[in-house]
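ingest -> validate -> predict -> emit
validate: passed (alphabet ok, no gaps, 342 aa)
predict: started
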Amino acid sequence: MPRDGSEDAPGTETAVSGIDASRTETAPGGVDASGTETAVGGGDDGAPGQEAATDGGHQTVSGHRFPSVVDDRRSGLRQLAVVASTEYRLAVRNRWAIAMTVVFAAFTLGLTTFSGASVSPDGFGRTVASLAVLAVYLVPLVALAFGYDAIVGREESGWLQTLFALPISRAWIVLGTLVGRGIVLSAAAVIGFGVAGGLLLREFGLAGFDAYVAFTLATVGLGLAFLAVGVLLSTLASEKTHALGAALLAWAWFVIVHDLLALGVIAAIRLPEAALSVLLLANPAAVYRTLVLGWLGAAGDAGFAAVLAAAGLSPGVLAAALVAWIVIPTALAAAAIGRRRV
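emit:
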């Protein structure tokens, strides 16, 4: 069982030492290096030597060059890289990467080995469809378990307070956390499902293997979507136990309850095509299931996905919806952390 990365104190030192602290220094003439001007040379307005000029994209006042907007953006990207690399190293050090890879590989290998599918294109499609059904349940659960303590766990360990005291935007903290953990989750999914893909390649050959590659990429997108939801819940929660409870409720809603309620509504009421599309797009798990099984031509065996096949959404629209489920929770978390008090 992986240890909680929030308890690893060395990660704090890495993050603190990697952030550019020069932005907090006061430049000569009383102008702060972050771009906030307090006084120039200590003189009155219009005094000699107070002219401002632009030199290579930098603001020059009294012979001193100060950072421009471009410099601030570059500094922000460096801060993002520091937070992301710290999260990545902590996840690897605490064996989250190994644990997730083993879980994915074990389930996919077991399903592939004992599926009993025939050596034919139909057998390949049925095997990948079974893996997609497995991924709908397994990948969101792992992603939420990996992301629920991303912010609130760091706060309880004291690391978040250290980051807030540094000259770094809080939005970069959220984005860097998601990027670092997203790299670990994506690598684990690619390796874990790739092992099963190697067995399928040996068994069935190259015929239809492009569909398996698309399935793996969609599975990575599903994991990132639920990781973003987990980070959002972690940002909103005041305690780790609250975040864990919210993550479990989110998994139950998106994976189980939403489909059951939607099927009940569809059975009771004849909904227009637009309403069916809304029901589909409101659930990243349903988007993923419909996208993958639509590629395989197996939507007729997909329950809720079979009902929503009549919605007429193209694979491009479904892929864009999956990307939106990554971007929107991330943006909401970046906005919410600005109002968080520690």
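The first helix runs from residue 10 to 18.
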